[in-house]
Amino acid sequence: MIVVQNLSKTFLDGTEKTTILKDVHLTINSGDRVAIIGPSGSGKSTLLSILSGLDKPTEGQVIIDGVDIASLDEKELATFRNRKISIVFQAFELVQFFTAYENAMLPLAIRGEIDATKVNSLFETMQLSHRKDMLPSKLSGGEQQRVAIARALASGSEIIFADEPTGNLDAANGKRVLDLFLATVEEHKKTFIIITHDMNIARQMDIIYEIRDGALRVLPN
Ligand SMILES: Nc1ncnc2c1ncn2[C@@H]1O[C@H](COP(=O)(O)OP(=O)(O)OP(=O)(O)O)[C@@H](O)[C@H]1O
Ligand SMILES: [Mg+2]
């Protein structure tokens, strides 16, 4: 379960302060499928960074399965994140000097749990097998996005955050990817938080939140 209390985020740009998130409260139960929508620049990716422990809130707490993530030191947080959380970043964030296959294996390798069968099977489903040994810089945007998704799914973590995970894919690939996410989430009872501009995708989740003017509100689904 993810519990967010009194969360605010202010960025300092020179001397100018901009508050992106204001006193946000949110509870996401284990196994929930959550969509987050909102205009460009409204703070969706910022919220994801804070929920996943990559960025710190200006105020407030993020508590994941009873652990206030601010109470962890850097090493504990890295271990916690590796086990609990996978993220498909909006800009993919692949490691440029690793091949597609190595990138997808990375979270498992960090835990000493290399699983070639798992990654190979994901690459097959994602139609990436022929790109296995290529560096990210040689891949198209959609291929890089699929590698980022394979990495998130290979990890086997309980919580998956996905920031516009179908934004670079054509309709057929987008549908394949979303179906794969939903099947994995269903099968392994994962918690799934997806940021999307696509209401057709949002409506397939259990709950839809909209961020606007720094606040979260539930939209009728
Ligand atoms: N590190 C930072 N320093 C200063 N401002 C930032 C920083 N990160 C984000 N912002 C600002 O916070 C606002 C929200 O950014 P964010 O990336 O969360 O938006 P978003 O809702 O994900 O938008 P999009 O739909 O375009 O991806 C933007 O105005 C952005 O410029
Ligand atoms: Mg964003």
Features of the shown structure:
binds magnesium ion; 10 strands; alpha/beta; globular; 6-stranded mixed β-sheet; 221 residues; Rossmann fold; 7 helices; 4-stranded antiparallel β-sheet; binds adenosine-5'-triphosphate
Characterization of the model:
It contains seven helices and ten strands. The protein has 221 residues and is α/β, with parallel strands linked by helices. It has one domain (30-42, 72-219): P-loop containing nucleotide triphosphate hydrolases (Rossmann fold), CATH 3.40.50.300. Strands 6-7-8-3-9-10 form a six-stranded mixed beta sheet, sandwiched between helices. Strands 2-1-4-5 form a four-stranded antiparallel beta sheet, with helices on one face. Helix 3 (100-110) runs parallel beside helix 5 (141-155) and helix 4 crosses helix 5 (141-155). The longest helix is centred in the C-terminal third of the chain and has 18 residues, at 171-188.
How do you describe this structure in short?
The chain is α/β, with parallel strands linked by helices. Helices cover 35% and strands 29% of the residues.
Bound compounds, each kind once, are: adenosine-5'-triphosphate, magnesium ion
Low-confidence stretches: none
By CATH, the topology is Rossmann fold
What is the architecture at the second tier of CATH?
3-Layer(aba) Sandwich
Give the total of beta strands. Answer: 10
- Helix fraction by DSSP (H/I, runs of at least 4): 25-40%
The major β-sheet equals:
6 strands, mixed
Mean pLDDT: 95
CATH superfamily: P-loop containing nucleotide triphosphate hydrolases
Using the alpha-carbon principal axes, give the shape: globular
Strand line-up of the largest beta sheet? 6-7-8-3-9-10
**CATH class descriptor name:** Alpha Beta
Work out the helix count.
7
**Rg over alpha carbons:** 17 Å
Indicate the multimeric state. single chain
Name the helix and strand elements from N-terminus to C-terminus, one letter apiece: EEEHEEHEHHHEHEHEE
Q: Helix/strand/pairing class, anyone?
A: alpha/beta
Number of domains: 1
Distance, first to last CA: 21 Å
Strand content: 25-35%
